[in-house]
Amino acid sequence: MKDKIIKIIIFAVAILDCILALAFAFSFNEDKKDSYSQAQLVQAQNPTLMADLATATPETLPDLVTKYQDEMKSLNDSLKGVQLQKDILYTYLQDLKGLDENNFEQYKADFPARAEALFAKCDNKQAYVDGFNAVNSYKDLESYVRKIENEYAALKQSYLEGCNYMKAANSFISRADNINQTASASKKASDLQDFQNDLQSFKSGARLQATFMFIGYFLGGLTLFLMLFFALVKIVKEFKTSYKILIVLALFALVIFIGYLIGSPVLSPSAIKMGLTVSEFKMVNAACFTFYVCLLGALLAIFVTSIMNAIKNRK
After folding, report:
1. How many whole angstroms separate alpha carbon 6 and alpha carbon 8?
2. What is the DSSP letter of 183?
3. CA-CA distance, 90 to 88, in Å (whole number)?
């Protein structure tokens, strides 16, 4: 009877979590889902822009649009510079990855000329030249390549974050510019008010999302805690017959750990849009890896059990 009550409690909490997830999914306007994420991104990186748009008037709008259009042009020029550094580093990294024991010495001998051409417009030319010159043999190359890979990943992530922010900011500035170009004063005022109402709804949506996420994580954590708590209680009371649970829990923890280790440290565009850190993104990868492994394990268990039962029935 106790086991049945425990299962009902865990199942009820899990169902509540699912209902919450569905309510969260249907609480946002599908046509404006991109604007929700863009508003959160701009709010996080440039809250002044959002505040200025929210308090703009038809009279102040022209100067406001000009100000932020100039800011976006400056950011675009800056991103072009970052892209150039990223492309140079990528080319250098491909050079290094193409080396082996047979061509390393020749590349090292030709490196001064190669460095002059490759790093002509590089901001960190001397650092890369000194770094490679410190690699005395092919055996020492692996650690240096890992260092360059990490630098490239960080530079690429910074570039993608900048591009995503600029895209999000430009979407709001463009809408403000379109309103500013409206000839009719009354329509201009009306469109601006609609725009500001949308901005306010985006902020409310962000707060709602944060609330749903908090409750969702809480219920998910509660579900996991209840499962582990009652499993441990059963193990303590009936250790001889419950040791298998410990093995399963250990394997589950191992799968999560492996999933985190193999998770990519490079944020995807979607991860950047959601504001995930590298650690959070690796946890998402670990969760996905764990889900796939558990799903595959369940399918294999069903398949193997069916075969074993069929063999037993034939006997």
Report:
1. 5
2. S
3. 5
What pTM was estimated for this model as a whole?
Answer: 0.63
Torsion angle of alpha carbons 64, 68, 71, 72, nearest 10°? Answer: -160
Residues 206 and 32: beta-carbon distance below 8 Å: no
Cβ distance 212 to 27 under 8 Å?
A: yes
For residue 299, the Cα-to-chain-centroid distance in whole angstroms is 29
Environment class of 287 (CB within 10 Å of its CB; exposed 0-12, middle 13-18, buried 19+): middle
Q: Are 164 and 41 in contact (CB under 8 A)?
A: yes
**Alpha-carbon torsion angle 254, 259, 260, 266, nearest 10:** 170
Number of C-beta neighbours around residue 53 at 10 A: 21
Q: Which tens digit of pLDDT belongs to each residue from 156-200?
A: 888 988 998 999 999 999 999 999 999 899 999 999 999 998 888
